[in-house]
Amino acid sequence: MDLLIGVAVSDRRLDRDDLGDARALGQEAAEGGVALAPLLDLYLSAKWRLWEGVAAGANTVPGEDVATAGAASFKVADEVVAALAQGYEAAQRLAIRREEALRREFVDDLLAGLVAEDALAERAARFGFNLAMAHAAVEGAPGRCSTPSMPTSPSR
Questions:
Q1: Between the CA of residue 135 and those of 38, 64, 95, 109, what are the distances in Å?
Q2: 10-14: long-range contacts at Cβ-Cβ below 8 A with a sequence spacing of 24 or more?
Q3: Are 83 and 23 in contact (CB under 8 A)?
Q4: What pTM did the predictor assign?
Q5: Which portions of the chain are predicted below pLDDT 50?
Q6: pLDDT value for 137
Q7: Domain limits of the chain?
């Protein structure tokens, strides 16, 4: 909030560090399991409450100063919301890549058969597989593809 107040009073732009801090907060929220909508709602609600305080004091400040402060604070809010969302999305993409890597590693270990069954079963549960059930497997090898011939019916 100090950032918003400072920008509203001075009409300065956010610098790289300010936006980096907002991205980091977005990443933290994503890693902490906070959904994006409530995160943005919380930030915008705080900004709105801050603006209420500015508007309440508007009768002691010239109107053009209030308008300038309002425009500056809305610019900052726009930039911070974008940075929060960027950080959030970056954390989500990283989590997805990690999950994909774990899944690939699990499948490789499963197919290689080099990992203890207990460890594999434990990892399988994370992906929704129950290795205790009966499963069918198909093995393939690279080579020439051919269409299977259909059996012919005997002549009458």
A1: 42, 73, 29, 17
A2: 10/72, 11/68, 11/69, 11/72, 12/72, 13/75, 14/76, 14/79, 14/80
A3: yes
A4: 0.66
A5: none
A6: 73
A7: 2-126
